[in-house]
Amino acid sequence: MMEITRETMSFTSSTPSARAPLGGRAPGNVATQDRMLKIVTEMRSGHGSGLSPFGQNAASTIRDSREREKKEMSDLNDRLASYIEKVRFLEAQNRKLAADLDALRSKWGKDTHNIRNMYEGELADAQKLIDETNKQRKDMENQIKKMQDELADIRRKYEDAIKGREQDRAKIDSLLVQLSNIEAEINLLKRRIAQLEDEVKRIKQENQRLLSELQRARTDLDQETLNRIDYQNQVQTLLEEIDFLRRVHDNEIKELQTLASRDTTPENREFFKNELASAIRDIREEYDQVNNVHRNDMESWYRLKVQEIQTQSARQSMEQGYAKEEVKRLRTQLSDLRGKLADLESRNSLLEKQIQELNYQLEDDQRSYEAALNDRDAQIRKMREECQALMVELQMLLDQKQTLDAEIAIYRKMLEGEENRAGLKQLVEQVVKTHAISQETDTETMRVVKGETASRQSFQRSAKGNVSIHEASPDGKFIVLQNTHRSKDEAIGEWKLKRRIDGKREIVYTVPKDFILRAGKTLKIFARNQGVASPPDQLVYDAEDSFGTGNNVQTILFNKEGEERATHIQRQSSA
């Protein structure tokens, strides 16, 4: 923020154009002449932001010295004014008081000597202050050099951290490659396990089929056994039937023998006996033949069935043995694969945990590096602002010294040219001016949103005079005007406040007529529905709901004559 202070002192008196003779009055038509002494001193002061305690103490000391010197200059101006009035009085009484002129001249010479000694002392003090300022400047330069060395050290550490980060990334890439290989191997083992499980399932199905066939063979064996028993029963039945028929035949034979014995004819008995023996022999032969055929058939069928059952049972036993061996082998291989899979999964989880820890460590390192970089940038920016503020203060001191030197030289010439009234007149009418220089203040704000975006806001303010734009809300809710002078009120009635948004839209607000901004006070102007009017500190602009927002916003204050008195520029960029 810039503050311009002006002090103007003017004196007007009437002096005779020629000296009157001693003890008499000036002849008629005495011409009068106005002589004006104007001493204009314009000083500026800048308020830096973000100074360190050392810089604030130095700036405070310099400001106190400047105020003290300003007060001393004011006292000197007052003394000079009284002295000039005395000179004018003596000139008016010159013709009348010629005798006292020598005494007054001697007195003036003594005062001149005293003033010269006083100004020489002040010059020595000013030179001492300049030497101290130069010493402080050297100290600040040494401190800046030290900060630059620290910055180089931080950069070196940052580069080492970047190298370590690259190494960690390479290690992470290697672990990722290893993890991908392990995952591929795990997938291969899973496929092999799936194939083995399918094979086990197929073998189980085959075993089930063989068991069902074995069960069917056992069922057939049981059925054949039942058939054998049935056939045996049938054989037993046939044998019993044969015995029964034999008994019947024996009975018939006995009856026939009885009949034959009754027959007394020997030829008949012999005939029946031979016939009966022949019939019995035929029956026995037929029975033996049938019995042999049935026996042979039953024995051959039984042997065939037993052989088939034994062969099928042996084959099933062999297949079951093979299946058991295969199942045992597959179970062993499956248990080995499951153990290996468990080891690989544990190793995979360990590697994933290590990768996660490395990622967390990498994120922590990145946050630490970003914080260190932000701190370093903030320190560098703060040191630059302090250096800039000190340079401004030093330049102000040098300007003030030049002004003081010029004023002292003028006073010296005035005192030395005391004998020469024409020279005194010219020096008294000389005007010392120091042009006003407006000061601009830049403020930058950067905000970082995690992982992703960064926005940067910069504010630039300048003012020509006591009234400045102290603040302009980025959201367009209000604008604050400030009177930076400590004792002087400013009439800002009918001043215009123009706000341009991105070079397109323009909003104009006119301050009410006859409005007075008190010394050291602020005026807060709200947009409609953004605040409550409370004159003279707060006003409301009823024409707009907002003063507008954008990436490039210019707020300019114009006086009634259309002259630019203050500016406020806001820029916002995002990355």
Automatic annotation (TrEMBL):
Pfam families hit by this protein: Filament (PF00038), LTD (PF00932)
GO molecular function, one term: structural constituent of cytoskeleton
Keyword Phosphoprotein among record annotations: no
Region (Disordered): 1-29, 46-74
GO biological process, one term: heterochromatin formation
Claim: Metal-binding is one of the keywords in the record: no
Any one GO CC term of the record: cytoplasm
Residue ranges the record marks as coiled coil: 327-421
Alphabetical UniProt keywords: Coiled coil, Cytoplasm, Intermediate filament
Domain of life: Eukaryota
Extent of Basic and acidic residues compositional bias: 63-74
Compartment list: Cytoplasm
Chain ranges of the LTD domain: 455-572
Similarity comment: Belongs to the intermediate filament family.
PANTHER family cross-referenced by the UniProt entry: INTERMEDIATE FILAMENT PROTEIN IFA-1, LAMIN DM0-RELATED
Protein name: Uncharacterized protein
